[in-house]
Specification:
Blueprint (H helix, E strand, L loop, with lengths): L2 H4 L2 H11 L13 H18 L2 H14 L3 H21 L3 H21 L6 H24 L3 H30 L8 H28 L5 H18 L4 H16 L3 H15 L4 H9 L4 H24 L3 H18 L5 H17 L2 E3 L8 E3 L2 H7 L6 E3 H15 L4 H14 L8 H16 L4 H21 L5 H21 L3 H12 L6 H20 L9 H32 L3 H9 L8 H14 L3 H15 L10 H29 L2 H11 L2 H4 L6 H15 L3 H14 L4 H20 L2 H21 L5 H14 L2 H15 L5 H18 L3 H12 L10 H12 E4 L6 E4 L5 H16 L7 H17 L4 H17 L7 H5 L6 H7 L3 H12 L1
Antiparallel strand pairs: 1-2, 1-3, 4-5
């Protein structure tokens, strides 16, 4: 199918229309209804997709003149109105849009008056209301940007439009509602609900506008709005899309009358019924096979509800819930990957504005939908350790505004986003990055290019010029790499602004600064040089200029252009070498590098890159000779010295590359030989790399990792730890930081195995912290490393940290390969961690499937069964007078029956009457009967009998139990937990309860 064939019918029809002018077309016979419908479709397309309203009118006129049936004649009359309305909605020019709306409303009124008995009257009345509502929305947007008398006039106009529409709705709603629900078609129901929604929304808007003029003057309209919207919710049914739309509008209505608590209630209800805040509730909803279409529909309601809900909370002086709901909207959209509607972009800007005013910090992985707001940096840092996932609220607001601007290039949302960006950038204390400032200034310049009014265009270029100056100011104190990244681009932008303002000499000087002071950006060096030459020669040619003082500048511009042209050859050769290298054509890459002329700024980089090609070709010995020759001989030879900024920048890059690869080769050689002296050589040669080359964010942490491992290989653990601390501080998110942490961790493992008992926990804590860091910086931490880290936190009693890791393991690795480990070890540990935190019900949910495996494919351990029993019936803590009950989560007789059976089996085994752990199992068995006995007295009697038996076997007061629990034969951990009469005290306590 050709592109032309792929176009819609009306587009091909349009092309034919343009090729054959209407005036020259011969009169045609009366059109059939099918032909007339095709013409109508065409006319609508002209208005909707191209905003060709005038041509659409001609098409309709042509159909009328050709003659149509009486039924089609009426429909054509309505289509005329529709064309104006469609064109108005799609018109970008404000003045023309307003004209089309006025024409549409006037046309609908005339049609309604002229066709009182027509079947098209009701659709015309509905369209009149819908068009009025759309017109009022556009006027409302204009009011936001207006002030003083203009704002007052627009408000009056909006009230007038809305009032006329509301008057039309009263009888229309009554008429349509009179049709019994069972007799109403789905289309008629939708039409009625749309009408009721528009009526309620418009009444609320009239009331809010009246209240804005004079307090409480709009109360009648708001009361009417709420009644209309309540009727809609009742008619449509709770939970339906129309009911949810009604809730959003009711929130707006209550906000309009100043009742922000009710506004919040309706806003929250909308969120709860669509995308609830609680992730567990949402997870349950998703389980019910929710489609992507349903998610998108739910998100549409969230987009509409969030701005009003946030504003209402702010009116109540409640910042944190406003932010919570705002970030809930952002998080859900990111997490589910949903597209934004215009309402969604408006909601995004509302969130951005709230963040700007709130200040503070936002932390969490935004892409994963985990962002949270914190009032202070310390709170944010404590919650989220990753620096990449922490940012100021203002920075995030700026990012949202910028994204909205970029994704809405030609509508009102772009204007709003730009205004918000300007507000953020100019706020006291805000220091946006050079990148943000540059994009804002460049955006102003590009916008100014499209402004038709000359005066407004001059103002736009002047604003852009101020923006570029702001970028320059922000570069003070920044690193050389950042200054070089933006300096030349900024001067080129300033030169363009001066040129557009006809300030030729200033343009020339801006380009000159870019080509001299800010030299170093290959993308802009040539542009600035050529523009400098062009502008200064143009200025010299002007009649008013005295050429003599300009001769030196002209000569300079000629020299700069010539030098730039010469250097380009070597830059091109170098870039061709890099391209061949990326394509793994190493011989061709070396050939290109060898052609770079000595004395060129790119010569040293090319020389070193030849060695890199040899590394990639497995010629380590040859590469090492190249790097040694360059670093030890060439660089130190005074005849090879240079002073130009570009030369020095390129030499710095070449040295960094050579030193890294030399160290890399030496480290690999040392790893192969295992010789301590070779590892010492690596540590010595790479020791200062990260301080000498701070502009190397990848190579610096890599070299630090190699030095850490070299220290560990030679037993210098203190030196390794000292450098590892610096590595973590400087590059917390680098994969090489993770690798170094793992290496240090393995060294600690060896030390831990040989350590005395009193030192084991100290070393274990350090091991856990190192493994935690390694897992966090890894893009996909292994099952083994996550499992090992969880075991460390369990051993250290850090059960909350262990729980997080164990849940991650269950969620990510419960596949065929890891299923056995998850079942036997991970889930039992998760249950134990939850019990330690007294999350008893959650522990029971995890442990019960393990303890009661229906297909008997797994045999749970004794510890797993006991922990499950504890989760069901609870347990006691403490001893003596301090015994305390931790309740279980069991609810049914079946739960208690299962527990009692398992505990009886356990208590029947072991060293009956002669071991501490047997008495502990027996206590648990009797305690379970005691708990069950609270609802079944027969179990209470059984508990009494069993504890009586234990009492008689332990000299009537349980005193001999302590002898067993204090025995050397009892494991140390049990002695520590149950010695000193703890268990016998618990028996006595239970006896008193029975």
């Amino acid at each position: 199918m050709t592109d032309f064939q792929a176009r819609p019918n009306w587009f091909r029809h349009a092309l034919a229309l343009f090729l054959v002018p209407l005036a020259s077309m011969p009169a045609a016979a009366q059109k059939s209804d099918a032909e007339a419908n095709a013409e109508i479709d065409f006319a609508r397309g002209l208005a909707a997709d191209w905003s060709f309203v005038d041509i659409a009118e001609n098409v309709i006129r042509n159909v009328e003149e050709s003659g149509v049936s009486s039924r089609m004649s009426e429909e054509l009359g309505l289509v005329k109105c529709d064309v104006y309305a469609i064109g108005a909605r799609n018109e970008r020019d404000v003045e023309r849009r307003n004209e089309l709306f006025e024409e549409a409303l006037s046309a609908y009124k005339s049609f309604i008056e002229d066709n009182p008995q027509s079947s098209s009257r009701t659709p015309a009345e509905v369209a009149f209301v819908d068009t009025s509502a759309a017109y009022a929305r556009f006027i409302g947007m204009a009011i936001e940007d207006a002030t003083g008398e203009e704002s007052d006039n627009l408000t009056e106009q909006r009230i007038e439009v809305l009032t006329a529409a509301v008057d039309q709705t009263s009888d229309l709603v009554s008429s349509m509602s009179s049709i019994p629900t069972d007799d109403r078609s789905e289309s008629e129901s939708r039409q009625l609900f749309d009408l009721m929604l528009n009526r309620g929304g418009m009444l609320a808007q009239i009331g809010a506008a009246q209240n804005a003029r004079a307090a409480d003057s709009g109360q009648f309209f708001i009361d009417q709005a709420i009644q209309a919207l309540e009727a809609l919710a009742f008619e449509a049914g709770d939970g339906t899309p129309y009911a949810l739309r009604a809730y959003v509008e009711m929130g707006t209505a209550y906000a309009g009358m100043g009742d922000y608590r009710q506004a919040v209630a309706f806003g929250e209800a909308t969120v709860d019924l669509t995308v609830p805040l609680d992730p567990k509730v949402w997870a349950e909803l998703v389980k019910a096979d929710m489609t992507n279409g349903e998610k998108e529909l739910r998100f549409l309601f969230l987009e509409r509800a969030i701005p009003g809900l946030m504003e209402s909370y702010m009116q109540l002086g409640k910042l944190e819930p406003a932010l919570e709901y705002g970030l809930h909207f952002i998080n859900f959209q990111r997490r589910e990957g949903l597209s934004l509607s215009p309402y969604g972009y408006q909601a995004t800007l509302s969130v951005a504005k709230l963040l700007m005013n709130a200040g503070g910090f936002v932390a969490g992985d935004l892409a994963a939908g985990e962002a949270r707001w914190f009032a202070t940096e310390a709170e944010a840092k404590n919650a989220v350790s990753s620096r990449r996932n922490r940012r100021t609220s203002v920075d995030l607001a700026l990012r949202f505004a910028q994204t909205t601007k970029e994704e809405n290039p030609r509508n009102l949302l772009r204007v709003r986003a730009q205004k918000l960006m300007a507000d953020i950038i100019t706020r006291p204390g805000v220091e946006p990055s050079p990148e943000i400032l540059f994009e804002a200034a460049e955006g102003q310049y590009l916008d100014a290019l499209g402004i038709p009014d000359k005066a407004d265009q001059i103002a736009g270029f002047s604003s852009a010029l101020d923006g570029f100056r702001g970028v320059l100011a922000s570069l003070d104190g920044k690193g050389q790499a950042t200054r070089l990244e933006f300096g030349a681009r900024v001067m080129y932008g300033m030169g363009n602004c001066y040129r557009k303002l006809d300030r030729t000499l200033e343009a020339a000087m801006a380009y000159r600064e870019g080509a001299t002071t800010w030299l170093g950006d290959p993308s802009f060096d040539s542009k600035n040089a050529q523009a400098y030459y062009q502008m200064i020669t143009n200025y010299a040619r002007s009649a008013s200029a005295d050429r003599d003082p300009l001769e030196s500048l002209i000569s300079e511009s000629e020299r700069i252009v010539a030098e730039e042209g010469e250097s380009k050859r070597d830059e091109v050769l170098f870039n061709l070498g890099k391209k061949a290298e990326r394509n793994k054509d190493l011989d061709k890459a070396k050939s290109q590098y060898e052609q770079v002329a000595q004395g060129s700024d790119f010569f040293e980089r090319a020389k070193v890159q030849i060695g890199v090609c040899m590394v990639k070709a497995k010629d380590s010995a040859g590469a090492l000779k190249v790097f040694d020759d360059y670093l030890e001989k060439y660089v130190n030879d005074p005849t090879n010295a240079g002073t130009g900024r570009n030369f020095l920048a390129k030499r710095q890059e070449a040295k960094a590359t050579a030193e890294f690869y030399r160290g890399f080769i030496l480290f690999n050689n040392a790893s192969a030989s295992g010789q301590a002296a070779e590892f010492d050589d690596v540590a010595q040669k790479l020791a200062n790399f990260y301080t000498d080359y701070p502009e190397q964010p990848t190579l610096s942490p890599w070299t630090m990792q190699m030095v850490v491992e070299s220290h560990l290989k030679t037993g210098k653990r203190d030196a390794a730890k000292e450098l590892l601390v610096k590595l973590i501080e400087a590059f917390p998110e680098s994969k090489y930081t993770g690798r170094a942490s793992v290496s240090y961790y393995k060294a600690l493992e060896t030390i831990h195995a040989a350590a005395e008992d009193d030192q084991k926990l100290v070393i274990l804590l350090e091991m856990a912290e190192q493994l935690e860091l390694a897992n966090k910086v890894s893009s996909s931490p292994s099952f083994a490393n996550l499992r090992k880290e969880s075991q460390h936190w369990m051993a250290l009693g850090e059960y909350a940290k262990a729980e997080d890791l164990l849940r991650t393991l269950v969620e990510k690795y419960d596949d065929e390969a890891s299923a056995e480990s998850i079942w036997r070890y991970v889930k039992p540990d998760l249950g134990r961690a939850l019990l330690a935190q007294k999350k008893v019900a959650e522990a029971m949910d995890v442990l019960q499937p393990l303890a009661l495996d229906p297909d008997k494919s797994h045999r749970p351990s004794r510890r797993t069964i006991v922990n499950w029993c504890r989760s069901v019936v609870g347990w006691v803590e403490g001893s003596g007078a301090d015994v305390a009950i931790v309740p279980g989560a069991g609810q049914t007789a079946e739960d208690f029956e299962a527990v009692s059976g398992r505990l009886n089996t356990i208590a029947a085994g072991g060293d009956k009457w002669t071991s501490c752990d047997w008495y502990e199992d027996k206590f648990m068995s009797i305690y379970a009967l005691y708990v069950w006995g609270q609802v079944d007295s027969a179990k209470l009697e059984s508990a009494k009998k069993q504890i009586g038996t234990v009492m008689s076997e332990t000299e009537s007061d349980f005193s001999t139990i302590d002898d067993f629990c204090s025995s050397d034969e009892t494991p140390a951990d049990i002695r520590a937990a149950l010695g000193n009469r703890t268990l016998q005290d618990r028996y006595r306590w239970l006896k008193s309860k029975l």
